[in-house]
Design a protein that fits this description.
Layout lengths: L2 H13 L1 H15 L2 H22 L1 H6 L15 H6 L1 H4 L9 E4 L9 E4 L1 H16 L9 E5 L12 H10 L1 E5 L5 H14 L3 E5 H13 L9 E5 L5 H10 L4 E8 L3 E5 L7 E3 L4 E6 L6 E2 L2 E9 L10 E10 L11 E8 L4 E2 L5 E2 L1 H6 L7 E8 L5 E7 L7 H14 L5 E5 L14 E3 L17
Helix pairs in contact: 1-2, 2-7, 10-11
């Protein structure tokens, strides 16, 4: 074993004894039989439900007179989580208790409790991201990250430098990516040749666009893990064109429940971490909840007893199946991840138009560096465009985009604004489509998060 692999695994074992073991347990379940996985999940689900009923006031009341089975559990919304915070917390003191919060760039952020067991096991899930995709702890990685709460401006300090040395990691701050800064990052990737890159989806996409625009031929890491946003098909194709030899694997999770899953070996579709979270789908039309179908994603954490989150409405829309087909592994698949409810545009009739419809209008427009579609509360639409070069306009493209918008939103007042910078969310992430209309989820996409 190479020096950094040994150093990293030793540090992980000393920091959190459960982390590496939990990663390997998850890997074994993934590679094992569907029956073995189902037996494991059934037992862990029974355990967390019993614990919640016996140790929290909220679930004791919710299950009063009913068996503590998942079918009897109410849906937990963010509004209920705020209102009943104290009642959902465990009455038993947990080791290493700490408070965490979601991003919430509008409205009140959601607060929740986690403990040392959750922290260690969730960290183990981040190790599992790599193990499933050919990356061992200690293999050199570059992290293209933009969150102010994850990367301090300026000198990151001796402690963080030591951690990065142990994990054999280099951080590239994507909070502000000027053209010169991106060219430096491209040179860094080509010079250092990492085994993996872990990046915000929008940041690695923007970096790939820069490389293609400037005709910079790029080294291909073994795997590029994207997170913190929907990886639209056109974004994936652009990143793949820039890094043709890399596996592009989208990862999904949130602050509230941690890692939910990841794509494996470049196959599209999030493999849900069934050993860690129990996923269900709420059909908004029928109100039915099932283990398959399309609708709002409900997550039950199997590893957080400090504040059990059962059937938690994470605020995303997706399509779940348990039929893995020709794919390896026993874990379920989110075949589609459509993003936050407020990354869809809402018509006055109440119908939702998928945000990807609008992002498609901008792809292939090489003079546009970045963009954002914003629906205001009065249903009017703004197209914010940041050109590659100041003052650059292609009027034919603008008219084509306007026609595309009007085709699905004929009643909407439409304006186009050219800007020098498009504001990012508080976490440093970029959201391509935002609806401020009441009824579209008011917690922004910065809640989709995995932190290490």
């Amino acid at each position: 074993m190479a020096f950094h692999n040994l150093l990293c695994e030793t540090a992980i074992a000393l920091h959190g004894a459960q982390s590496l073991a939990f990663a390997k347990e998850g890997l074994a379940l993934y590679r094992g039989s569907a029956e073995a996985k189902e037996n494991y999940v059934r037992e862990k689900l029974r355990e967390i439900l019993r614990y919640a009923v016996e140790n929290t006031a909220y679930y004791a009341e919710a299950f009063a007179g009913r068996e503590p089975e998942i079918e009897n559990a109410p849906v937990l919304t963010k509004a209920v989580l705020r209102q009943s915070y104290g009642e959902i917390c465990s009455s038993i003191s947990r080791k290493g208790l700490y408070e965490n919060t979601s991003g919430g760039s509008t409205g009140e952020p959601v607060k929740f409790l986690q403990d040392r067991e959750y922290y260690d096991k969730n960290f183990g899930n981040k190790i599992l991201f790599g193990l499933l995709n050919g990356k061992r702890p200690g293999d050199f990685e570059i992290k293209l990250w933009g969150s102010e709460r994850d990367i301090l401006q300026g000198d990151i300090g001796i402690k963080e430098k030591l951690i990065n040395f142990i994990y054999n990691r280099m951080l590239l701050n994507s909070f502000v990516m000027s053209e010169d800064r991106m060219l430096q990052y491209l040179d860094c990737i080509n010079t250092r040749q990492p085994v993996s890159i872990w990046a915000y989806a929008d940041s690695i996409y923007e970096l790939a666009c820069c490389a293609l625009r400037e005709k910079v031929r790029m080294f291909s890491p073994r795997v590029i893990i994207t997170t913190a946003g929907v990886l639209y098909d056109d974004m994936r194709k652009t990143i793949q064109r820039c890094f043709p030899g890399s596996l592009i694997c989208n990862q999904y999770g949130s602050r509230e429940v941690g890692a939910v899953g990841i794509e494996v070996r470049g196959e599209k579709g999030i493999r849900t971490f069934d050993h860690s979270v129990y996923i269900e789908i709420l059909n908004e039309s029928t109100g039915q909840i099932s283990k398959e179908g399309t609708g709002r994603i409900l997550v039950t954490s199997l590893i957080n007893k400090a504040m059990p989150l059962i059937r938690f409405d994470i605020g995303d829309i997706g399509t779940l199946t348990q039929q893995t087909g020709e794919r390896e592994g026993s874990f379920g698949v989110l075949t589609e991840l459509k993003g936050r409810v407020n990354s869809h545009i809402r018509r006055k009739s109440g119908a939702l138009i998928h945000g990807e419809y609008f992002t498609h209008l901008f792809y292939g427009k090489s003079w546009i560096r970045n963009f954002q579609v914003v629906q205001r509360r009065d249903y009017s639409l703004e197209l914010l465009i940041r050109p590659v070069r100041d003052g650059e306009r292609v009027l034919g493209d603008i008219e084509e985009m306007k026609r595309g918008v009007k085709a699905v939103m004929p009643e909407a007042e439409l304006t186009v604004r050219y800007v020098e910078e498009i504001p990012r969310l508080k976490s440093g992430k970029h959201q391509f489509v935002i609806s401020e209309v009441e009824g579209a989820e008011q917690e922004k996409q910065d809640e989709r998060y995995i932190h290490s």
